[in-house]
């Protein structure tokens, strides 16, 4: 069984910063990529950023230059540094891991952490 434990969410004023963490554990042979998604009330879940085990990163356009994703392969942990936060960044942020386990590849989601940016 795989677990993702997210932390770092909270309430911050516009222009402030937060750092999210997501630690994976369990029956993971190798991680292919770890990703952050977010979902605002009444909206669909959307991609935010991703990082592969090789360190390749990708971001949605609206967070480029403000958010930075990084990872620690040894700790199976991914981070999302969020700077210059805007009220429109308010959402529940979900961590996702794509990994190889017992003979197949799998996708697993965390429980989410709330990020609220006040104006």
Helix and strand layout, with pairings?
Elements: E1 2-7, E2 10-13, E3 18-26, E4 30-39, E5 46-52, E6 57-59, E7 67-72, E8 77-82, E9 91-100, E10 105-109, E11 113-118
Parallel strand pairs: 2-11
Antiparallel strand pairs: 1-3, 3-8, 4-5, 4-9, 5-6, 7-8, 9-10, 9-11
Notes on the protein architecture:
- The strands form 2 sheets. Strands 2, 4, 5, 6, 9, 10 and 11 form a 7-stranded mixed beta sheet that branches. This protein has a 4-stranded antiparallel beta sheet with strand order 1-3-8-7, with no helix packed on it.
- The protein has strands spanning 2-7, 10-13, 18-26, 30-39, 46-52, 57-59, 67-72, 77-82, 91-100, 105-109, 113-118.
- The model has no long low-confidence stretch (mean pLDDT 96).
- It has 119 residues and is mainly β.
SS-derived structural category: mainly beta
**Amino- and carboxy-terminal Cα gap:** 40 Å
The level of helicity is under 10%
Calculate the mean pLDDT score and round it. Answer: 96
Strand segment tally: 11
């Amino acid at each position: 069984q795989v677990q993702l434990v997210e932390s770092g969410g909270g309430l911050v004023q516009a222009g402030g910063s937060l750092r999210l963490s997501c630690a994976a554990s369990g029956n993971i042979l190798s991680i292919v990529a770890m990703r952050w998604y977010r979902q605002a009330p009444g909206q669909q879940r959307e991609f935010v950023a991703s990082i592969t085990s090789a360190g390749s990163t990708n971001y949605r356009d609206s967070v480029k230059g403000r958010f930075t994703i990084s990872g620690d392969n040894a700790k199976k942990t991914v981070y999302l540094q969020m700077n210059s936060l805007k009220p429109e960044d308010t959402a529940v942020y979900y961590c996702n891991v794509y990994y190889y386990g017992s003979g197949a590849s799998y996708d697993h989601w965390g429980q989410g952490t709330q990020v609220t940016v006040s104006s």
